[in-house]
Amino acid sequence: MHENREQLWQAYVDAELSVTEAAEFEVSLTEVERGRLADDMQFERVLAERLSHEAECPDEVWERTKARVLELGETPVRIQVHLKRWYWGAATLATAAALAFVISLFAASGGTPDRPTVILAASSVEELAASSEVDPGSDSAEQFLHEKGVQLHLVDDGALETLVRHHSGIHFIGARQESLEGDPVTEVFVECCGLPVKVLLASLDSNAANRIGVAAAQNGDIQATRVIGDYLVAVVSRHESHGLLDMLSE
Amino acid sequence: MDEFLEKIEKHRSEFYRFVLRNVWDSGVSEDVFSQAVLAAYENRHKYTPGTNFRAWMFRILMNKCFVANRETARAFEPLDSPAVAQALAAQPEPRIAALENPAAVLEQCGDEVFRAFRGLSTAQRTCILLRGVERFSYQEIAEIMEIPVGTVMTHLARGRKKLRQELADYAKETGIIREFPRLRQREESAKENEGKGS
After folding, report:
1. Residue A185 pairs with which residues in a beta bridge?
2. Which pLDDT does position B1 carry in this prediction?
3. Are A134 and A140 in contact, with CB atoms under 8 Å apart?
4. Contacts for A61 with CB less than 8 Å, ≥ 6 apart
5. Quick one: pLDDT band at residue A98, thresholds 50, 70, 90?
6. Same structural domain for residues B50 and B112?
7. pLDDT for the residue numbered A16
8. Cα–Cα distance between A212 and A111 in angstroms, integer?
9. Range of the structural domain that residue B98 is part of
10. Nearest neighbour of A32 by CB, restricted to B17, B133, B190
11. Which of B11, B59, B106, B194 to mutate to test the interface with A (most CBs of A within 10 A)?
12. B97 and B152 belong to one structural domain
């Protein structure tokens, strides 16, 4: 069958042709083809029925899933609600913000159990470069991700420069594997405008991802988060560079 | 219950069915389904009210299936290339197409249908499920999968051909169908005559 004819045939079976196109196609059919077309349509119908048969979501599966969602969903939402109330609560807000700022300044140097180093911004590019487990450059970083079983892809060094508008000197300076709440977190280090930026990757099902979500809601050093594939990705820096989330893709 | 969760619950069987039929290892379907629902819930702020909720959910489900099957978006074959089109055209027409009432054969193949379906690539299964079972248009499938409409059509054509071939082979092996050379010969000569006539 001619390629175009085959496409028309398939589009007819899938009811993708307009009324006029379908009528024209029907006229062009021979008797044998008419029979085959009817068979094809019946085949697709029966196949769809077979694939749908006995495939309903069991109640117990749904209840378990719902419980997991509610369990995971509660913490960050509650914190956000409380924060909103604080914002509108006037006087206490100023005190709380000032306190949080002072605490974050102290924590930045080392981290505390409440605010682990992983979710805190690095103080300098040199500090990040010194703690890297790999050489600078996108190839080393991507290879490191794959070695750690991360199934995401990095843009190359050239493309990285274009991700954050009006910023310059953006390049990969290393990567490292850390631990948060007992789960692994992969960190990719980037320099942007001479300032350090960490991009964290944590498996969505992990406690680490949950911890990052909570930290993001607390307005710490986490600028932005995004779910990419099976990972929660977060940009950690005091330098505005959330566009770096685009450096990863499935 | 949360309004967003209610929305998912309304379509839960469609979503579960898609996962159940799409993951190679059906034993992990519950886990994949749960992960997809969790991911959707965590990203609920990214869903724009008034837009196609089912399509939004199926995109998440599809991604989870690709991960579960250890395939990535990069594993999509460049099916729009002329070389692949040629290879497709060169594939023999599945014997099941030459039989009377292939749907009856399909019914008699039992669970072999599911085994043969699992033999397709994740992209092919996704296209067939979204089109045949979930009734999405080519355009909607293209948007869900982020691939051109032409590629959707090719995945569909290739998947269907392969599925029919597998089932035809099985049906022949198990005696569900027998080949009738004379019938086939008659059919082919009828085709030739029609070709000459036009």
Report:
1. A178
2. 62
3. yes
4. B16, B30, B33, B34
5. low
6. no
7. 94
8. 14
9. 82-197
10. B190
11. B106
12. yes
CATH number at residue B193: 1.10.10.10
CB-based contact A45 B103, cutoff 8 Å:
yes
In this structure, the number of other CB atoms found within 10 A of the CB of residue A127 comes to 11
In a domain, B47, yes or no: yes
The model's pTM is 0.55
pLDDT surpasses 80 at B56:
yes
CA-based nearest distance B50→chain A, Å: 22
CATH number at residue B28: 1.10.1740.10
Q: Please tell me the distance in Å from A5's CA to the nearest CA on chain B.
A: 12
Q: Is residue B77 part of a domain?
A: no
Residue B48 located in a structural domain: yes
| Inter-chain touch A51–B129, beta carbons under 8 Å | yes
Residues in chain B: 198
Q: How many CB atoms lie within 10 A of CB A138?
A: 19
Q: Are B66 and B125 in a shared domain?
A: no
Domain's final residue, options B70, B94, B121: B70
Show contacts of A185-190: CB within 8 Å, 24+ apart: A185/A118, A185/A212, A186/A144, A186/A145, A186/A148, A186/A150, A187/A118, A188/A141, A188/A145, A188/A154, A188/A247, A189/A122, A189/A128, A189/A129, A189/A132, A190/A160, A190/A241, A190/A244, A190/A247
Express each pLDDT in B91-116 by its tens digit: 555 545 545 567 777 778 888 888 89
User: Quick check: A73 and B103 CB within 8 A?
Assistant: no
Lowest mean pLDDT of A151-155, A232-236, B86-90, B139-143, name the range. Answer: B86-90
* Nearest Cα residue to A3 out of B76, B9, B91: B91
Q: Does A42 touch chain B (CB under 8 A)?
A: yes
For residues B169 and B17, the model is more confident at B17
Residue of A nearest to B61 (CA): A229
- Clarify whether residues B182 and B87 are in a common domain: yes
Q: How far is CA A197 from the centre of its chain?
A: 18
Torsion of CA B63, B64, B69, B70, to 10 degrees: 70
Position A45: which residue type? R
**B60 shares a domain with B28:** yes
ipTM over 0.85: no
| Look-up of token digits 């992960």 | B35
> To which residue do tokens 């330098």 refer?
A239
Q: B129 and B90, same structural domain?
A: yes
Residues B118 and B173 in one domain: yes
- Whether B76 maps to a domain, the answer reads no
Domain count, chain B: 2
Q: Are residues B94 and B127 in the same domain?
A: yes
